[in-house]
Structure formats: C-alpha cells, structure tokens
Design brief:
The chain is 30% helix and 39% strand. It has 174 residues and is of the alpha+beta class. The N and C termini lie far apart (77 Å). 15% of the residues are buried.
C-alpha cells in the first residue's frame, strides 16, 4: 500500500513539475499557447518561420516571404493605410480587413456587410471620378463586379446586393 501511494505521489509531482516548466517556458517567450500552436501549424504548412501575434481581434503572421495581418470579429472602419487614391466605401459596414505584404507588393481585402442597393454603380462612379480606368464591369440582378486600375494599383469590388454583402480587394502591381 505504501509503495502504491509513493508511486501515485511521485506521478502527481512529475505532472505538476512538467506543467510548471511548460507554463514558465510559455511565460518567458511572451507568447500565448494559442500563438505558439498557430505558429507551429503555419510553419509546418508553409515551410517558413512564422510569428503569430494575437491581439485585439488581429492575427499577424510573418514569414520569410512577407507579412499578413487579419482583423476579424469587430466592426471596422475604412483602412487608413490604403493609398489615398482608393475611394472609401461608405454604403455598408466593414466586417473585417486583411493586409498582406509579399515581395514588396501590398494587398488589402475589405469584407463588407449590410451594403445598400445601388452600391456597385455608386462605387463605380466614385472610382471614375477619382481617375480610375475601368477594366471590366459585370452587373447582374443580384449585384456584380468592377475591376479597375490607377497607376500601380488594381482594385476589384464585388457586391451581392441580395445578400447585402461584398468585398473590395486592392493590390499594388509592377
């Protein structure tokens, strides 16, 4: 009986020490367990070192190729870091934003909800007034798409007015 109790106590002691060591290592690295798990998963998937920083509804991933940031779960505002030539979209709510820098090129994706009827045509007019050159426009009964360029910028706006959702993608090109 004493031998069993001694083994039981030793096992609990080993588990407690193991947990304490893991918590100490995590605390020393300044990373949460979620950040560490996400980093390992991304490193395995991409083959590159990843640095994940979770804070206030944002995920930032840094790899050898560049950096990406995703904002989620919050109603947002029009990204302030977009080039000034990109007209703000104001006929709906911003659900989330992603940013990416890869090889010196930047891209932004703005996810929209609660968009108003006529958003596609109105945003097309804003782009035209700001000097954008239309590459293509597709209109359907439920929404459509606009693709345009200005200098080294490319924009694609897609709206589904029936579902009151959409997205705008902006990227720099060579």
């Amino acid at each position: 009986m004493k031998k069993t109790q001694l083994l039981w106590r030793s096992g609990r002691l080993i588990l407690t020490l193991g947990a304490a060591i893991m918590l100490t290592l995590a605390a020393c690295s300044g990373k949460s367990a979620q950040e560490q798990i996400a980093e390992k998963a991304l490193e395995k998937a991409t083959g590159h070192k990843a640095d994940v920083d979770l804070q206030q509804g944002k995920v930032t991933v840094k790899t050898g190729d560049g950096q990406s940031e995703i904002s989620f779960g919050q109603e947002g505002s029009w990204p302030k870091d977009l080039p000034a030539d990109v007209p703000a979209f104001a006929q709906g709510k911003i659900k989330g934003v992603t940013r990416s820098t890869q090889g010196g090129k930047q891209s932004w994706n703005v996810v929209l909800e609660a968009i108003e009827t006529g958003s596609l045509q109105n945003y097309g007019k804003k782009l035209e007034a700001a000097g954008w050159k239309s590459l293509s426009t597709i209109s359907t009964a439920e929404g459509g798409m606009i693709q345009a360029t200005k200098g080294k910028l490319l924009i694609m706006a897609m709206f589904n007015e029936k579902e009151k959702s959409g997205g705008i993608s902006i990227s720099t090109q060579d």
